[in-house]
């Protein structure tokens, strides 16, 4: 007798992924390992300007292309608002929401529709530190 076919487990994560580095890669790899398919919301340029007060180094089109080309990533979409997480989770049929632990506790409200997992950040690397390092040596 064959086992009943179960629905593929979809994982969703979000991020800017600007000046892509190994900390981004690690969170994507670990997120993908929690399910069968990984969908990534890449934050819009406009969202970064609004929330962080600066334009990303790489445009949303470039950042989406980089993330979409990664082996563990099944699909990418543009995250246009931080307030639309519930809609994105439902739209993509996600079973698990994964974020780095810099967001610890911030998305617990979605536990009614999916699992919420916070992964430890990769230490000692960040886009901001990289930009500072590059401009100091440039
Ligand atoms: N990250 C990590 N280790 C690092 C740096 C980043 O694990 N050293 C993780 C973050 O915790 C996040 C992901 O990589 O889960 C993307 O990080 P950012 O590009 O900084 O994205 P962020 O601005 O946190 O996301 O809805 C969330 C927004 O899209 C913003």
From TrEMBL:
<dbReference type="InterPro" id="IPR014729">
    <property type="entry name" value="Rossmann-like_a/b/a_fold"/>
</dbReference>
<dbReference type="Pfam" id="PF01467">
    <property type="entry name" value="CTP_transf_like"/>
</dbReference>
<keyword id="KW-0548">Nucleotidyltransferase</keyword>
<dbReference type="InterPro" id="IPR004821">
    <property type="entry name" value="Cyt_trans-like"/>
</dbReference>
<protein>
    <submittedName>
        <fullName>Glycerol-3-phosphate cytidylyltransferase</fullName>
        <ecNumber>2.7.7.39</ecNumber>
    </submittedName>
</protein>
<dbReference type="GO" id="GO:0047348">
    <property type="term" value="F:glycerol-3-phosphate cytidylyltransferase activity"/>
</dbReference>
<feature type="domain" description="Cytidyltransferase-like">
    <location>
        <begin position="12"/>
        <end position="132"/>
    </location>
</feature>
<keyword id="KW-0808">Transferase</keyword>
<dbReference type="InterPro" id="IPR050385">
    <property type="entry name" value="Archaeal_FAD_synthase"/>
</dbReference>
